[in-house]
Hints:
Helices cover about 35% and strands about 20% of the residues. The protein has nine helices and 15 strands. The protein is elongated and about 70 Å long.
Amino acid sequence: xxxxxxxxxxxxxxxxxxxxxxxxxxxxxxxxxxxxxxxxxxxxxxxxxxxxxxxxxxxxxxxxxxxxxxxxxxxxxxxxxxxxxxxxxxxxxxxxxxxxxxxxxxxxxxxxxxxxxxxxxxxxxxxxxxxxxxxxxxxxxxxxxxxxxxxxxxxxxxxxxxxxxxxxxxxxxxxxxxxxxxxxxxxxxxxxxxxxxxxxxxxxxxxxxxxxxxxxxxxxxxxxxxxxxxxxxxxxxxxxxxxxxxxxxxxxxxxxxxxxxxxxxxxxxxxxxxxxxxxxxxxxxxxxxxxxxxxxxxxxxxxxxxx
Length: 307
């Protein structure tokens, strides 16, 4: 039997599994974020085991052999989140070492997680002290020369990495990263600055809200950053994407002319047509508001569709 800090390895496995289960039970589309205080006070079998470290990005409880979680700090609106520049040629994300010493205990803890094939949690700050928990993620490679680890954020990525076929599947790996990390973080950041309210109709049920891209993902300037996003209910998001509604550069909503004259049920009348001329409710922080250049470019697409 393998002992870890005076406890057997099975205890560590059970504690890790319990942590994942607790995160699953305490988050959903309506409430996706965790408070630092709650993460720091988590307990297992009567013992407090903080899931996140106050000062450091890599968390390895004293009783554990391998790291339990990693953390990315808060990025203010308008700035590019660190993960945007962290993808390697294989499509996997990179996570930097603690300092420049490969033998630092925290770096060894991530190396142990890789060797033992155990999953971790990636906490990313959406607001100061509030985190989205991306899980499970796996350490799949170690690059001392660049002082970084490679991370798979999806089980399919992990399988490709272990099979050594990532170089042939980069576009697929990047798409998985988009789905598992970028999209959830983009949604969480945008809904946060809009206080979980649709910018058009003020619906404030987070489970019914999306983060709508102003410039489509994959296009130039289509980054998943807050100034390229609008908080919209699912109806208005779909209408925006299909050019049924547009948003002028001055943040005023327009409804396509043919839709304005269409006769249908109450959803069209009250949910779409009556939004014509409405002004978006925008974040109070200037850096979090929609980028005017992006709005203008997207509005020209809408006008072309109307014409």
